[in-house]
Amino acid sequence: MREYMAIFITASYYGLLAAGLYLIFGRSIRKVVLEIRMRKRLRARRRALKEPGLMTRHLDLMLSTVFRGKISAKFFCILTLCIFVFVYAAAIKVLDPSAAVISGIMISIFPYLIIRIRLENIRKKSSFEGEAFIGEFLTQYRICRFNAFETMSKMAEDPKTAETCTRLLLKILYITRNNVADATIKEAADSFTYAINTNWSRMFAYNLKTAIKTGENVSLAMEDVFLQLREARILGEERVRLNAEATRMVIFLIPVMYAATVLISIKYVGLPWNEYLRNQFGTSQGFMLILAILVMFLVNIIIVEVVNNQKFDF
Asked: Quick check: pTM over 0.70?
């Protein structure tokens, strides 16, 4: 009991001492706390206003286009690092350290390449919406008496004509409706241009930016873009027949051939499953072979996609 009383009296003593110090120096303490908070707030504000680096901006634009803002550049970098560590940990058991590092770097690059392929597919799809999109925009622009904001609102009501382009246009509307500063308009126009990455998208974004900033009638410039897209469609129809056989060979024939070699090794050569897996993944020669097959397969897919995914443009 005496111990509890001693603790209580000691705590009361220090509490009264702290209360007395606060009564004497409370105003000074509050000023110091407020100054520290203001400094942190200013640092946070400076960080928010600081321009991101080229790589960060590139990743943000790419990921916001592909995943609609669901994945940040920071998360993507952490995911890539985890893939590198996993591949390195698996490769270091059968390879020397330098080869394991090279293997980890090679495999960890592929998430970026896959997302890049997805971005190019989105750009291709969006580019083919150009003629219908600009035609609908011109119609609504004239109906709305050359008011850019009202036109974008009308376009958002029926996005079926050009779904991807209309979604990007709606993003511009959200960004610029309450803030018509030059930097904000430029950021919105750049996001539209990056997502499609064609000459007609750049011309459209430039004309739309002019219409938003100055209210100028840009219907004639839009009509010129529309007519050029109509001519480009006639030339672009011939691209559809190219490289169809090469695509089927890369996507289907290579995996089937590898599966056939596995079947021949086990069924006809008489190699047991555990021996085959040990030779393939437990030795440096087998691991480098499967890694080379995987890398070359993915490189072939990327090359075929780059060749086939020619955007609709002039």
From this structure: no
